[in-house]
Write a structure and sequence with these properties.
7-stranded mixed sheet, alpha/beta, 13% strand, globular, two-stranded antiparallel ribbon, Spore Coat Polysaccharide Biosynthesis Protein SpsA, Chain A
Length: 307
């Protein structure tokens, strides 16, 4: 008997995330037979009721808890996987909503059967130009050992994109606990560069435990750099429109190409600047929470919040 394969999405908050998740799920279903189930963690399960998926309600309490003490949204990926992997009967594949499948995920399933982790694409190694703050921290072997983390030489360490996170059924669940711990630790140590700590933590812990990481860039298009503009294009799409688009990944490439050409328009620039201000305010809030937490720990004579 084949082990079950669970695909899982998370779509909560703004309408744009649910719209993108609908498109991605439809493209997964259209790509071929899915050897398992598809789950969607969402605060609006009614929007997915016409799709062949199982929905899991994300209430405000869970969202707040999973974001952690600093309100870091990407931390929720780790908490979701910790919750699901322990009870899932087989492999688990987390997929970001701003994606579209271009072919069936047979390669991913094969990688998981061989005991490999799967992430979207391999990006770069840490350097003076690519997250030097992370490199300085991860080159401090004494810090890593004191924190109980594995030591991976930075010249051997690669950062992978976490738009996809495939976990083989043979993986020790404690790996996710360690990933969460490292994520929170990085948030405290490099609060000005918090946005990428979850994928760095996954990449580091997987490699620290000697896990081979396969990629799936050919199976999945992850348009994270264009998601803001593309989501606005999807706003007026009906479910049938999304279903039709999900069958034509080439059309998605073309639409994104058109959107890139229009980025310099006055209206688009105004919207982008507004979004940047909102994201900056949210980032400053997270940073202030980190510094307040550090001050609190020092006042109590602790090194870490969990001491």
């Amino acid at each position: 008997m084949k082990e079950q394969l669970s695909f899982v999405y998370m779509a909560y908050g703004g309408w744009q995330f649910r719209r993108q998740a609908l498109l991605s799920v439809l493209s997964l279903v259209q790509s071929g037979a899915v050897p398992g189930r598809v789950l969607v963690y969402t605060d609006r399960p009614d929007e997915f009721e016409k799709l062949p998926v199982e929905t899991v309600l994300l209430d405000k309490g869970s969202i707040k808890s999973w974001k952690g003490p600093y309100g870091f949204s990407h931390r929720m990926k780790i908490e979701l996987l910790r919750s699901l992997f322990k009870e899932a009967d087989g492999h688990v594949v987390y997929v970001d909503s701003d994606t579209i499948w271009t072919r069936e995920p047979a390669g991913i399933y094969q990688s998981l059967r061989e005991g490999c982790a799967v992430m979207h694409v391999r990006e770069r190694q840490l350097s003076d130009r690519f997250f030097p703050q992370y490199r300085a921290l991860l080159e401090n072997t004494e810090f890593l050992k004191n924190a109980g983390l594995p030591v991976v030489p930075t010249e051997q360490f690669w950062v992978y994109n976490a738009g996809v996170l495939g976990l083989p059924s043979t993986m020790n669940p404690a790996v996710l606990d360690e990933t969460l711990y490292m994520c929170d630790l990085l948030c405290r140590k490099v609060p000005l560069m918090m946005e990428w700590v979850e994928q760095t933590a996954f990449s580091y812990i997987f490699q620290g435990h000697g896990m081979k990481i396969d990629t799936c860039g050919e199976e999945l298009f992850h348009y994270w750099a264009d998601s803001f503009e593309f989501a606005r294009r999807l706003k007026k799409y009906s479910l049938s429109d999304l279903a039709a688009l999900s069958k034509e990944p080439q059309r998605v490439y073309e639409l994104i190409g058109e959107l890139r050409k229009g980025r310099r328009s006055f209206v688009n620039q105004l919207l982008v600047r507004t979004k940047r201000l909102w994201r900056s305010a949210r980032k400053r809030k997270r940073e202030s929470l980190v510094y307040l937490d550090i001050l609190k720990c020092r006042a109590l004579g602790r090194e870490r919040p969990d001491d």
